# Entry
Amino acid sequence: MRKKLKDTKVGAWLKDKAPQVLDTVGELLPDQGALGVVKRLIDLDPNMTAQEKMEFEKMLMDYEANAQNNVTERWKSDMMSDSWLSKNIRPMMLSYLVVIFTIFVATDSFDNLSFNIKDFYVETFSILMTTAFTAYFAGRSYEKVRLNRK
# Structure
Protein backbone atom coordinates (compact mmCIF):
# COMPACT_ATOMS: atom_id res chain seq x y z
CA MET A 1 0.00 0.00 0.00
CA ARG A 2 1.33 3.43 -0.90
CA LYS A 3 1.98 6.00 1.79
CA LYS A 4 -0.21 9.04 2.11
CA LEU A 5 1.56 12.39 2.14
CA LYS A 6 1.08 12.76 5.90
CA ASP A 7 3.02 9.50 6.44
CA THR A 8 6.12 10.58 4.51
CA LYS A 9 9.22 12.55 5.43
CA VAL A 10 7.64 15.53 3.65
CA GLY A 11 4.54 15.07 5.80
CA ALA A 12 6.63 15.14 8.98
CA TRP A 13 8.26 18.37 7.80
CA LEU A 14 4.87 19.89 7.02
CA LYS A 15 3.52 18.87 10.43
CA ASP A 16 6.27 20.92 12.05
CA LYS A 17 6.51 23.86 9.62
CA ALA A 18 3.12 24.16 7.91
CA PRO A 19 0.42 22.17 9.74
CA GLN A 20 -2.36 24.02 7.91
CA VAL A 21 -1.02 22.71 4.59
CA LEU A 22 -0.76 19.17 5.99
CA ASP A 23 -4.36 19.37 7.23
CA THR A 24 -5.44 20.24 3.70
CA VAL A 25 -3.44 17.70 1.65
CA GLY A 26 -2.25 15.08 4.14
CA GLU A 27 -4.61 12.34 2.90
CA LEU A 28 -3.50 12.66 -0.73
CA LEU A 29 -0.96 10.36 -2.36
CA PRO A 30 2.30 12.17 -3.19
CA ASP A 31 2.52 10.78 -6.73
CA GLN A 32 -0.94 12.04 -7.68
CA GLY A 33 0.04 15.69 -7.92
CA ALA A 34 -0.11 16.47 -4.22
CA LEU A 35 3.54 17.53 -4.06
CA GLY A 36 3.01 20.16 -6.75
CA VAL A 37 0.07 21.58 -4.81
CA VAL A 38 2.07 21.56 -1.57
CA LYS A 39 5.03 23.27 -3.24
CA ARG A 40 2.74 26.00 -4.53
CA LEU A 41 1.18 26.48 -1.09
CA ILE A 42 4.63 26.68 0.54
CA ASP A 43 5.85 29.15 -2.11
CA LEU A 44 2.83 31.40 -1.46
CA ASP A 45 2.93 31.14 2.34
CA PRO A 46 4.10 34.53 3.68
CA ASN A 47 5.03 32.94 7.03
CA MET A 48 7.65 30.66 5.44
CA THR A 49 11.22 31.91 5.52
CA ALA A 50 13.46 31.65 2.47
CA GLN A 51 15.52 29.04 4.29
CA GLU A 52 12.43 26.91 5.02
CA LYS A 53 11.38 27.15 1.39
CA MET A 54 14.85 26.04 0.28
CA GLU A 55 14.75 23.18 2.80
CA PHE A 56 11.41 22.08 1.39
CA GLU A 57 12.71 22.33 -2.18
CA LYS A 58 15.67 20.11 -1.28
CA MET A 59 13.33 17.60 0.33
CA LEU A 60 11.23 17.48 -2.85
CA MET A 61 14.35 16.95 -4.98
CA ASP A 62 15.42 14.10 -2.68
CA TYR A 63 11.94 12.59 -2.91
CA GLU A 64 12.03 12.76 -6.72
CA ALA A 65 15.54 11.28 -6.86
CA ASN A 66 14.40 8.42 -4.64
CA ALA A 67 11.36 7.81 -6.85
CA GLN A 68 13.60 7.78 -9.95
CA ASN A 69 15.96 5.34 -8.24
CA ASN A 70 13.03 3.04 -7.49
CA VAL A 71 11.95 3.11 -11.13
CA THR A 72 15.52 2.43 -12.25
CA GLU A 73 15.76 -0.55 -9.91
CA ARG A 74 12.44 -1.92 -11.21
CA TRP A 75 13.65 -1.55 -14.79
CA LYS A 76 16.96 -3.25 -13.94
CA SER A 77 15.04 -6.10 -12.35
CA ASP A 78 12.91 -6.43 -15.50
CA MET A 79 16.02 -6.54 -17.68
CA MET A 80 17.55 -9.28 -15.51
CA SER A 81 14.39 -11.38 -15.83
CA ASP A 82 14.19 -14.41 -18.09
CA SER A 83 10.91 -13.13 -19.47
CA TRP A 84 11.04 -11.74 -22.99
CA LEU A 85 7.88 -9.71 -22.33
CA SER A 86 9.21 -7.93 -19.23
CA LYS A 87 12.31 -6.87 -21.18
CA ASN A 88 10.37 -5.56 -24.16
CA ILE A 89 7.02 -4.25 -22.90
CA ARG A 90 8.11 -0.61 -22.57
CA PRO A 91 9.56 -0.24 -26.07
CA MET A 92 6.61 -2.19 -27.47
CA MET A 93 4.10 0.12 -25.76
CA LEU A 94 5.97 3.17 -26.98
CA SER A 95 5.99 1.82 -30.54
CA TYR A 96 2.30 0.91 -30.31
CA LEU A 97 1.36 4.41 -29.15
CA VAL A 98 3.37 6.01 -31.98
CA VAL A 99 1.79 3.71 -34.59
CA ILE A 100 -1.75 4.34 -33.31
CA PHE A 101 -1.11 8.08 -33.17
CA THR A 102 0.20 8.02 -36.76
CA ILE A 103 -2.88 6.08 -37.90
CA PHE A 104 -5.18 8.57 -36.14
CA VAL A 105 -3.43 11.54 -37.75
CA ALA A 106 -3.45 9.95 -41.21
CA THR A 107 -7.10 8.91 -40.93
CA ASP A 108 -8.10 12.35 -39.68
CA SER A 109 -6.37 14.03 -42.62
CA PHE A 110 -8.64 12.41 -45.24
CA ASP A 111 -11.53 14.75 -45.90
CA ASN A 112 -13.84 12.11 -47.35
CA LEU A 113 -13.73 9.95 -44.17
CA SER A 114 -16.04 10.79 -41.32
CA PHE A 115 -13.48 10.00 -38.65
CA ASN A 116 -14.28 11.39 -35.23
CA ILE A 117 -12.78 10.46 -31.87
CA LYS A 118 -14.51 11.43 -28.64
CA ASP A 119 -12.69 14.01 -26.52
CA PHE A 120 -12.35 11.54 -23.66
CA TYR A 121 -10.24 9.21 -25.81
CA VAL A 122 -8.11 12.07 -27.12
CA GLU A 123 -7.37 13.22 -23.57
CA THR A 124 -6.66 9.67 -22.37
CA PHE A 125 -4.39 8.98 -25.34
CA SER A 126 -2.58 12.26 -24.76
CA ILE A 127 -1.91 11.34 -21.13
CA LEU A 128 -0.71 7.86 -22.13
CA MET A 129 1.68 9.23 -24.74
CA THR A 130 3.03 11.93 -22.43
CA THR A 131 3.56 9.42 -19.64
CA ALA A 132 5.16 6.81 -21.89
CA PHE A 133 7.52 9.23 -23.63
CA THR A 134 8.48 10.95 -20.39
CA ALA A 135 9.08 7.69 -18.55
CA TYR A 136 11.00 6.09 -21.36
CA PHE A 137 13.15 8.96 -22.58
CA ALA A 138 13.50 11.07 -19.42
CA GLY A 139 13.92 7.94 -17.32
CA ARG A 140 16.59 6.58 -19.63
CA SER A 141 18.36 9.95 -19.64
CA TYR A 142 18.27 10.05 -15.85
CA GLU A 143 19.73 6.53 -15.69
CA LYS A 144 22.56 7.46 -18.05
CA VAL A 145 23.43 10.63 -16.12
CA ARG A 146 23.39 8.70 -12.87
CA LEU A 147 25.63 5.96 -14.28
CA ASN A 148 28.08 8.53 -15.69
CA ARG A 149 28.40 10.19 -12.27
CA LYS A 150 29.43 6.89 -10.70
Q: What stands out?
A: The chain has a mean pLDDT of 81. The two ends are 32 Å apart (CA to CA).
